[in-house]
Specification:
2 strands; about 170 residues; mainly alpha; two-stranded antiparallel ribbon
């Protein structure tokens, strides 16, 4: 891939990752700590569960990104959707920060020539470019869930994270 285009893509990918990280943080900041653990119903995930899942995914996908399968054998994906009663807001923040740290440690040093290298995720080959796009879409999906749930839980206290309606 052309160096200029590849470097532009990597810079944009990092910008988008940072944008979604900030969006999630701004949404969660509008909640009381207990709000991180609230659900809409028995079948819904809380923000804490979504963050735990994202952190597990990020650790698995981005640790040894170029050299090992993105689904690590020690990952307990199903366990990411269960919280201990002792889980604290600090745990949630740690999962969030540790997960994003994995993303940035893996992506920041990439060079244009890495984009067409092959990595595996769950045994399936992907170009690095495809793997990055896959994860951007996955994180956007979950950050959208976090924002929607935070907006609902904050109610009238909610401060828009974009352009407010009719204002």
């Amino acid at each position: 891939m052309s160096g200029d285009i590849g470097q532009a893509y990597l810079a944009e990918a990092l910008r988008v990752f940072r944008q979604y990280k900030e969006l999630g943080e701004k949404a969660m900041a509008q909640l009381e700590p207990a709000g991180l653990f609230q659900t809409l119903d028995e079948e819904s995930n809380s923000i804490a569960v979504i963050v735990r899942h994202m952190g597990g995914n990020m650790r698995s996908r981005w640790t040894e990104f170029l050299t090992s399968d993105g689904e690590k054998p020690d990952r307990n994906r199903d366990g990411e959707f269960e919280l201990r009663t002792s889980t604290t807001p600090a745990d949630v923040r740690r999962w969030w920060d540790d997960g994003w740290r994995c993303v940035f440690v893996a992506v920041e040093p990439l060079q244009s020539e890495d984009l067409l290298r092959t990595v595996t995720i769950r045994g399936e080959p992907h170009s690095v470019l495809q793997a990055i796009d896959r994860q951007i879409a996955h994180y956007a999906y979950h950050v959208g869930q976090i924002v929607q749930l935070a907006r609902h839980l904050a109610g009238e206290r909610w401060k828009s994270l974009s352009i407010p309606k009719r204002r």
